[in-house]
Amino acid sequence: MGMNDREFRRKKDLLFLLTKKEITLKYKRTVLGIFWSLLNPILLAIVLFIAFKVFMRIKMENYTFFFLSALFPWNWFSASVTMSTGTLIGNVNLIKKIRFPRHFLVLATILGQFVNFIFALPIIIGFSYFSGKGPGVNWLITIPILIVAQFIVTAGICLAISMVNAYFRDMEYIIGVVISLLFWMTPIVYPLKIIPETYQIYLVLNPLTYLITAWREIFMSNYIDWRSIGICYGSSLVFLLLGILVFQRLGKRLDEVI
Amino acid sequence: MNDALEIEDVWKKFPMRRDRPGFKEFLLNLPKFVNRNYNSNFWALKGVSFKVKQGECLGIIGKNGAGKSTLLSLILGAIYPTKGEIKVSQKITPLLDIGAGFHPDLTGRENILINGVLLGLTKDEVLKRIEEIIAFSEIKEFIDMPVRTYSSGMYLRLAFSVAIHTNPRVLLIDEILAVGDEAFQKKSKDALLNLINGGVTTLFVSHQMSAVKEICNRAIWLDGGEIRGEGEPERVVEEYLRCPG
Questions:
Q1: Does the pTM of the predicted model rise above 0.90?
Q2: Closest to B58 measured CA to CA, from B173, B161, B191, B192
């Protein structure tokens, strides 16, 4: 029992250190360092605010907030997926010469991007405060629930992609296109309700539809959208299982192809 | 005495991929690609079996390409056998490509931490030994600089120091007795001998026959993925050296 306990602590340390490495390396040799994680979303918010207020003059009320409330979670997802294509093939040395749980590399990639999402939350809180509807107690319940849901679905997809890309390097470029398609298929720039009822059923196939919807509901309306949360947990688990299956199956011969 | 390692009829193949053809060629030869015979295989190991007892030091000798490094990687568990079974009862510490887990942009200290944990310690355990590790590597004044600024000798010294301070139970050594300058070579050799004499099970791949005869109490001669000789280091080394080509 004591041995298992130690092994558990070691695994936890390993995941922590790999994540820390991810973050450290990202800003190594920059002057502002991790401060960029905070600065980036602020600058993005300013740019979008100017774009929507001055140039595009979108009529929808609070459109910048509407957009950002979906964009920040989306960015966590898309950056993780894009980076995961290189996670395994970029760590050939580790994989071939050291024995450790390889899926930690993928999880560390996702956790590294998660930090950016956390740093974007103050901006969401600011917008929410000025809109007068939040932030409220509901946030404390919903945000952790949604973080876990998003982590699960992202992990499933990233595990599969990182492994498939080792065998089939074209994956990296396919993912680039699929990500931009997914961006427009997910209600990020538009609300879910503009999609005709008859098509809405197909949206379940996109695991992000309800995830993003739930994020937006809590951020903009301080409302816990249990229905969306339920649906996204269902699809997240399916994606996670598929991801684990692909990762394990193809993982046995990984060393032969990288 | 218990067996620390049991290798049973292990086979390992690698696909021999030709370089990826262009897209035009791919389309023209589509039927050939669908047919799996396009890629031929190379068998790096062909049915290798042996056991290693607790506390034993086994030397593995053979020509380049005989399958020695593949064998060590398999035992380590970083790669899987195509056929056969490898039973390991204890934690394995590789001294293969030491520094494999190092990242050039991280500092020496950061690399010690992450590699110590990769090699089987918890973070607290590494932190407890970190001064010892730094002292052994003799690069105290550079320890907070990124390792890309290190000379290759400094790099290897640090990597070696981390590896031997991780409480190894089974050591896999791939020709690394030549780390650093003369003085450090002696120091690292002494440290290894200390571990080996202290009862650590060791698998030692080397081309230095004198070292194999000196350190090991048994030797295996691999040739073309098969075991060609096994037994007393003196005798196996002699057979190997006598064999032409």
A1: no
A2: B173
